[in-house]
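Secreted protein, pasting as requested.
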Amino acid sequence: MSRYVSMSRRRSILAAALVSAASLALVQCDRAADAPTTPDTADAPVAIPEKATPLAPQPQTALGRGDLISAAAQAASAYAEGRTPTTADPLIGRSFTVRMPFGCSGPAIPGAAEGEPGVARWSPADDNRAIQLSLTPGDWTDSALIAAPLGAREAETWEAVEGFWVPRPWMAAETCPSAPTDPLLTVEPAVSPQTLGIAAVFEAGGSRVGRRNGRAYAFSVRPAAGQTLSPPVGGYRLVLQGRIVGFPGGRAIRCKASGPDQRPVCVAAARMDRVAFEDAAGAVLTEWRAG
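Structure tokens follow.
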């Protein structure tokens, strides 16, 4: 009897073991079926990174009136401090378009400062049937600002230098000033001395195209048929276009003053490409080109 029970118990244990083994196998099969398949990395395509396209350099915009005034203020400060900048001048090689309003208060008065060389003016002409616009560049070849140290002329570099003043260098706008005149003044206020200019330089042995040699830029404004001539509202504009070339030594602007309490006079050295007269609305009346 005990032997039969022992045999029966062995069979029960064996059967239970078989059932457990079968269950474990089924669980492992289910896990294998549920496990995500991993792709064969050897067969996967390799992404090649695209080469970054270099950005094209943005063209520099032309310097305007405000840019020139700002640069001259920095140059004047450096001169007054006795400081010589050691870094490369960023203005060298830059193009510029500078507009200067003129005749804002009316026609030029003979002998007034507005009629000096290098400053544009307008005046009645042809028995008040026309308005004459004119500008005679100043001869700055032997001026203190252009001459080299120790008084020697930089003749080996420049054969001639013709100057243009930039009136009202405290005003960046390209329009006539609108500040009113003091009504209590009994005399006409004196015009401030010119302290900012552009020097058109001509190399020794170079082309003389564009040189005025004392001749004025001049143009007559006449009314259309059937209309009467009237003084301009807002004056006219002188337009100077060119490229900053700088002085020997690598600075775009040179400043000089007669003493420490005097405002420095600063001049930018440039090659002039275009001179034009415009009306107050910006319409071109006439122009002269170097080439």
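Note for the archive: Residues 1-6, 24-29 have pLDDT under 50 and may be disordered.
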